[in-house]
Each structure stands twice: as structure tokens, then as C-alpha cells.
Amino acid sequence: MSDAAGRSGEPVRRRSVRFRLLAIALLPMLVILPLLLGVAIYRWNAKFDATLISKVNGDLTIAHQYLARILEKTGVQLRALSLSARFHEVLAPDARDSLRELLEETRKEIGLDFLYLTNDRGDVLASSPPLQHRPRSDWPIIAAALSGQASATGVDIFGNDELAAISPALAERARLDLVPTPNAVPTDRSVETRGMVVHAASRAMLPGGGAAVLVGGTLLNQNLEFIDTINDLVYRAASLPEGSQGTATLFLDDVRISTNVRLFEGRRALGTRVSAAVRSAVLGEGRTWLDSAFVVNDWYISAYEPLVDSYGKRVGMLYVGFLEKPFSEAKYQTLVIIIAAFIIITAATVPIFLRWASSIFMPLERVTATITEVERGNLSARTSMPVSSDEIGRVAIHLDSLLDQIQERDRQLREWNEELNVRVRERTRDLEHANLKLEATTKQLIMSEKLAAIGEITAGVAHEINNPIAVMQGNLDVIRSVFGADADKAKVEFRLLDEQIHRISQIVTKLLQFARPEEYAGYVERHAPASVVSDCLPLVQHLLNKTEIAVVRDDRADRLVLMNRNELQQVLVNLIVNAIHAMPEGGILTLRSFDAERDGQQGVAIEVTDTGIGMSAEVVEKIFDPFYTTKRRQGTGLGLSISQTLIKRQGGQITAESRVGSGSTFTVWLPEAT
């Protein structure tokens, strides 16, 4: 006992003295300082990332202001044209050629892709370039200008036909082949034909006093000058560290229609699409995205904001961002330098701490070595340390004195122990003899219990296998009596035979499911209750044919249930067979399915009702107990218990209502499949 105690206590004493002293010496350097350093690095990393997000947010603000400025400038220029004296001079009907020349000159001067004058009836009075067809006149900005607003601007989406009505060249410029992009929302489209247009309208007055509108616009699809100007404004030279680069993009929906992001060297990523996560946040929820994002082929610190058309709908996005890799590399290099400096300082200072502590460790190790020898049985071991006035020296002298006393006590204990061992051996022989008898009796009881359990389970298996065997036999009778040797007409029956043979193997599995349902869950699927009931009736048709039982169907369930089809069929067949056995003289078997709610949860109920002999209230309370049966010669009482286990595993329940002489109703309730 003393040796065992010493061996179990040895690591405790070492941890409590030597290792704790080392911990006291090294804790500040190896634990506290790294923790503080880790917290500082974590905070610095968070601030570093926040600074990058703040920068890209500022970049997005500049890009947004530039786009707003383009809209405002376009409206101002159209307003200036509508108020100019030259414009009013050429409004006369006999000066329409001069009006077209003025519109052509102004369009080129202010950089518009189209410019036309229309009256309040939508008739185009003059245009540049010449319009192919009459354009739409129901744009909100046109309506705003006609209602009295001096000028109105916005970003609008033109269909390809609408662009072609203005100019076939614009329709061709808007067309972009979509490039398959990882992480984008799946789409069946292969081409984008719509155009995003900076759309402006300004009110003008005709010589006769009628209202007119100057309408102009610039197509942004593949407008590289527009997007490069944004990029130059946001990311001027030397505004980013070496190795990083700024990018800007204009999206129509989630398609890049104007960008300086490169798909590969020399080709812009036009036609590529944004990731599903960004699309959901920006276009779906209307939020501004400020975070790291994978753009085409690399990670960028990115900012996306939704673009809204004149109808108030989100139709696209404005993006700016810069390459994340140089910042990440700089951050990791800084972390490596900090960690390397910490390791070097620690490696230089720890030996000094250890040398200072050795003056304490060496005497303690002599004491520890002596205690170890004593634990191994050498009670004559002593520290033999020189007399010292410090605390450790006094402890060593006191330890030697205690060891002398322990050695004497040990001698006495050994003598008493020998006498005690003699008595214990006598008692042990008696106990061993009694234990042998007890073990033999226990083995017999265990064997009896196992045999009883095996007998019950075997009977249950035999009972469950009887039903599919009967079904197979019934279908064979049908084949022989109806079709004879014409086997080609009996394909359905042969299929049923295959299914029931498979079901025989499933019966054994059901027994195991009763004991360990969590290990035999099976595959679950969504089913309409009526279809499962329909599949069950052929399986019991031979039993129905033996007695005068009418089957009534009432299928009103609209919901689906989620359960393994074979398991649900097993439950319903078991209930139907029990109902048939309850009507030996014939009767009515009613099968109903309908939507039902239980405890606030939506679900489906399937009722199996018979007009048989019924059951008393005492029997109803026990019918779901394992091995309880009213069929003393035929059943084992496992059928309803297994069925209840299968249904409960899917979150449902089987309930029974019955009265003696009035039949029984079994209700299977399952939650609705979601």
C-alpha cells in the first residue's frame, strides 16, 4: 500500500514543487506575455481590416459621386440646350433641318449616344442619330419633365428592341456574351442584350405653346472611358501599395457590362457575373457590401452598392475595390517579425531564469530522489545533506528524522501484517467457494433469459413473415386461376412476388428496429398517403377474397408525409390485416386519409376502421406493449409495437379507439413533409 501510494504521489509532488517553481519563473515570459501579445495582434489585425474597409468605403463614395455628377451634368446640359436662344430659333416647322443639325452638334459635344425632341403625344420632332422606330414615351423621367419639372435624370434599363429603335449600333454595343463564372447564381441565359443608359429629359416649349421634351442618353455597356475615369479618380497613381491595383465595375443586374477587371491579360472581364452571396446582399436586400470578395480570379477588398432606376427598382451595382494580396502579405510579414522577435528574446532570457532557479532545484531533487528510493522499498535511504540554515536544509534534516521513525514503524507493521494475512487467507477460501456457486447460478439464469428472449423474438419473426408468404401464395393462386400458362400477362403478380421476397428480409430488420431504432432509420421520402394506401391493398387482396369484406376509400389529404415508403406500407398492412382478422364474418373496411392538425402542428391522418368485434378499454391500453397479443395461437404482440416505434421515429403517433361489438378505428398521424 505504501509503495502504491508513493508511486501515485510522485508526479504530484514533482508538479507541486519543481514544476511550479519553473512555472513561477517562466509564466510571465511564456504565458502572460504571449497572451498579451496575442490580444494586441488580434486588436491590431481587426483595426487593420477595419482601415481597409473604411478606405474602400471612401473609394465607393467617390465613384458614387462621379456617377451622380454625370447624371446631374447631363440634365444641366439638356436644360441649357432647351433654354438656349438658338434652340428656340430652330423650333419653327420650316427649320427642322436646322433643329436636327443642332441636336447632332450638341449630342457630339456633350458626349451623348442619342438625343431627340418629342412632344407630349410621343411624336419625335427631331433626333440624332435618326431613329429607326418611334421610341417609348412612358419613361418616368419623360413624364416628370412633361409634368413641369425642369429636368429629370436617372439610370434606366433599355431592352435590345428599344436600343435598336434608337440605333442598331447601340443594340450591338449592348450585346455581351455571358462568361460562366464560379459561385454565380445559375442561369440559362448565354447572352445579355439589355443596356444600362444614363437617361435625362428636359422640358421645352414649342412655338405654338405646346409642351415638348428633350431626351438624351449615354449607353454604359462597354463604356470603357466611363469606367476607366472612375478608376483613375478613385485610384490615382501611388494611392495603393506596390503590387496592389484598383478596379471599378458597373453591373447590369449581376453581369459586368463595363469594367477594368481583367479576365486574363489583355481582355476585360466583360460578361462575367458576381457571386451569389454579393448578389443576394446588394440586389436582393439592397445593402451596401463592404468586405473581402472573390472577383473573377482573385480576392479584393470590395465595395458594392445597388443602382436604382427611375422606377425605383434595383437594376444593377456599382463596384470599386483593390487587390487584397499585398495587404495580406504585409500583415503576415509583420506578424512573422513580431513572433520571431518574441522567440529570439525568449530563447535568450529563459536560460538565465533556469540558472537562477537551479540553486533551488538541486537540493529539492536530492530530497525527491530520497523519497523515490523510500517509495521503492529502500527505507534506509537518507538525504545526507550538509547542515544548512535555509528552509530547504531544515526540511531535509527533518525528513531524515521522519524516515528513521517510519523504518521502525514499518518493521512493526510487517509483523502485524503477516498475522493478518493468515486470517485473510482463511476467509478468502470461504468466499471463493461461495463465489463459485454464485457464478454457476448466475450463468444458468442468464442462459434461461437468453433462451426465453430468443424464443419470443423467433416467434415474432415467424408471425411477421407469415403475412408476405400469404400474399405471395395468394398472387400465385391468381396467376394459376386467371392466366394459366400465359405468364406474359402476369407481370404485375411476378413484380409483387419480388417485392414480398424483399419484404421477408425487411421483417427481420423491423425486429432489430424495435430494439435499436436509431441504427435502422432507412431512407425517407415524401409520399401522398393515398398512393401508399393504394399500394397496400393488392398485398392483402387474397385475405379480402376469403371473406365478405367491403373496402371503402375516402382520400381527402392534400399534404405529403415524410417517411420511408416500405416502413409506412408495413405499418398500414399490419393495421389492415388486423382489421380483417377482427371481421371473420365479413364487414366494412374503411380507409380514410385527411389533413389534420395536432398540438398546433400541421399533418396528415390515415384511419383504418373496421366493423369487427372491437376491444375493451383494458385491451386498448395494452395493445402497443411489446409481446401483448389477443391472438393466442397466431400472434406474438410485436406488430403494433413495431408499428408505433416506426411512426414515432418520424414524429408521429398511432392511436386506437374501440368498443366491444362496435369495431375499432386506428389512426396514424404524421407531420406534414416540409
UniProtKB/TrEMBL annotation:
Pfam families linked: HATPase_c, HisKA, sCache_3_3
Domain Histidine kinase: 460-674
SUPFAM superfamilies reported for this sequence: ATPase domain of HSP90 chaperone/DNA topoisomerase II/histidine kinase (SSF55874), HAMP domain-like (SSF158472), Homodimeric domain of signal transducing histidine kinase (SSF47384), Sensory domain-like (SSF103190)
Localization of this protein: Cell membrane
SMART domains for this protein: HAMP, HATPase_c, HisKA
PROSITE patterns listed in its UniProt record: HAMP, HIS_KIN
UniProt keywords, alphabetically: Cell membrane, Kinase, Membrane, Phosphoprotein, Transferase, Transmembrane, Transmembrane helix
Alphabetical list of InterPro entries matching this protein: HAMP_dom, HATPase_C_sf, HATPase_dom, His_kinase_dom, HisK_dim/P_dom, HisK_dim/P_sf, sCache_3, Sensor-like_sf
CDD domains: HAMP, HisKA
Coiled-coil features, chain-numbered ranges: none
Protein name: histidine kinase
